[in-house]
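Incident log, structure service

09:12 report received: a user says their structure output differs between two submissions of the same chain.
09:20 pulled the input from the user's history:
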Amino acid sequence: MDVNNATYRWETLEYHFGEKKPEWFVILGVLSFAGATAALLFGNYLFAVFLLLGAGVLSVSVLRKPRSLSYEINPEGIISGKTLYPYSSLSSFALTGGHLGNRLLLVSKRSFIPLIIIPLGEEDPEVIRDILSDFLNESEHVEPVLYQLAERLGL
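09:34 re-ran on a clean worker, output below:
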């Protein structure tokens, strides 16, 4: 493949969406009210409010269906939706697989967003590896523990 003109595009959902059963919301409510009650008993009113608001925001956000985003790898960088990540702002990449699909991990040189996770959908990771290895170094990276936990909980 001619890397000077190589453009690889794909489209996939921005994250895996799993329907939540009513039991999921009941458990969330019970846990958040138990935590808020404990916080109130210890006199931590602000934390109790924080727990209840957090549970409310979480319950609304898990109902939002994912958008279909387009991704592109070209000689300038990697485009995710409308955001361009130039190769000059990236230090390396890694390809990982989980029970919800393959993902591309981009390690950024910026401290604000050090790891960018891009879902591959049905795309072949070897094709992505072949293209990106002309622009970036591949290294071993692991998704953050909180990201893995959220994935397992279906968040």
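09:41 both user submissions now match this output. Likely a transient worker issue. Closing.
09:42 reviewer note: The chain has two domains: 8-14+67-153, 22-61. Residues 22-61 form one domain.
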